[in-house]
Design a protein that fits this description.
The chain has one domain. 18% of the residues lie in helices and 35% in strands. The protein contains 2 helices and 7 strands. It is globular. The two termini are 26 Å apart.
């Protein structure tokens, strides 16, 4: 089974529930200053398998979550050259099966 949910489900309880069910999932994350700091500090590289300009990965544990997650972020370059639109994906790689959280930042 798989699930896709908006930022209203971006919480540890949702991640934990999907993991217990062994579901693949995508959640939209909420923009927080801590997450933005992680995005700014991340090592970005060209994205070759998506429509994004760049992508990055990092391990991050949102406040109040039981475990850290693997975040995958996509960055899109607007015509004026500034990076405004970002999407971050959190993969639940620590459970060993597929699943991710999609975060629009």
């Amino acid at each position: 089974m798989s699930a896709r949910a908006d930022s209203g489900f971006y919480c540890w309880q949702a991640v934990e529930a999907y993991a217990k069910l062994n579901w693949r999932f995508i959640l939209v994350a909420r923009k927080t200053s801590r997450l933005v700091d992680q995005l700014q500090a991340a090592k970005w590289k060209r994205s070759t398998q998506t429509d994004a300009d760049d992508q990055c990965e990092f391990i991050y544990q949102p406040e109040g979550w039981g475990k850290a997650c693997r975040f995958l972020a996509l960055r899109y370059e607007p015509k004026n050259g500034s990076y405004l639109a970002r999407r971050a994906h959190v993969a639940r790689s620590f459970w060993g099966r597929g699943g991710m959280i999609l975060a629009t930042i």
